[in-house]
Every structure is written in C-alpha cells, then in structure tokens.
Design brief:
Layout (H helix, E strand, L loop, with lengths): L1 H26 L12 E2 L2 E2 H4 L9 H7 E3 L4 E4 L14 H24 L6 H27 L1
Helix pairs in contact: 1-4, 4-5
C-alpha cells in the first residue's frame, strides 16, 4: 500500500516535469534549451521539439502531422497522426500525453489502495487498467467538445 502512494507522489512530480517541458517548449525554446549531439535532443531533431519553427506557431507539429502542410495538403501523414497518435508528432504533444498519463496512473494507484472490487488481485488490476482508459476517453471527449 505505501509503495503505491510513494509511486503516486513520484508520478505527480514527474507530471510536473512534463508540464514544465510543455511550457518551456511553448514559451522559452531557444539556445538555453539543452541539446545533445548538435541539433538533437533525446535522438529527435529540432523539428520535433521546436514548436515555433521560423516564428510560426506550432509549425513543428503541423509539419510532422500533415502530409504536406506547406502546400496545403492537410491529409494526415500517417494513420492516427491527427487523432490517437498525435502525441508522436512533436515534443509538446508527447509531453502533454506523458503529463496526463502520469496523473491518471497516480490517481488510479491511490484509488486502488482505498477500493477493491474483487478478491482476486488480477481482477482488481484489470478494473483499474480499464478505469485508466475510461478516464483517458472522458478527458478526450471534454477536449474535443471545447477544441473543435
């Protein structure tokens, strides 16, 4: 039980780190942003991490998401690029995905300490994994209603 709470606290702290990455990419990307191996960070090029490109907001995401954004071809570059795999298109969306995943996992771990549905630990684990996906789906509905 105490391990679940400790892991939850760590995940919430990690979520805060991912939130910091999101804000850093959105508001302060530039020379102080750490790079490894020249123009790469964690093996991914600047186009993945730099949201603003040539001072155009979200350019990196759009170029990575659509077939030929510059020519106006807004077909998805690959299946899921504009929907369920949007987190693979740029660093900001990846950080947002990990931020939300950490929060949901922390919530599920804390709740699983308090509530047990079945005597079998395997069934309880299955219920909490299902709950994680249900929370993700509910969040996606809220986002879609406001964003679209």
């Amino acid at each position: 039980m105490k391990y679940k709470i400790i892991i939850s606290i760590f995940l919430i702290c990690l979520a805060g780190g991912f939130n910091g990455v999101m804000d850093r990419l959105d508001f302060r990307y530039g020379p102080p942003f750490p790079t490894l191996d020249g123009d790469q960070l964690v093996g991914l090029d600047r186009g993945f991490w730099d949201l603003h490109g040539d001072n155009e907001r979200w350019l990196g995401s759009w170029v990575n998401k659509y077939n030929d954004y510059a020519a106006g071809d807004l077909r998805p570059k690959y299946i899921g690029a504009t929907t369920f795999l949007v987190w693979t298109t740029d660093g900001w969306h990846l950080s947002k995905f990990l931020f939300n995943a950490c929060w949901r996992t922390a919530l599920i771990l804390v709740c699983s300490v308090a509530w047990r549905f079945f005597k079998s630990p395997w069934l309880n684990t299955g219920v909490w994994i299902l709950a994680w996906f249900v929370l993700a789906f509910i969040q996606a509905i809220g986002f879609t209603i406001i964003f679209k």
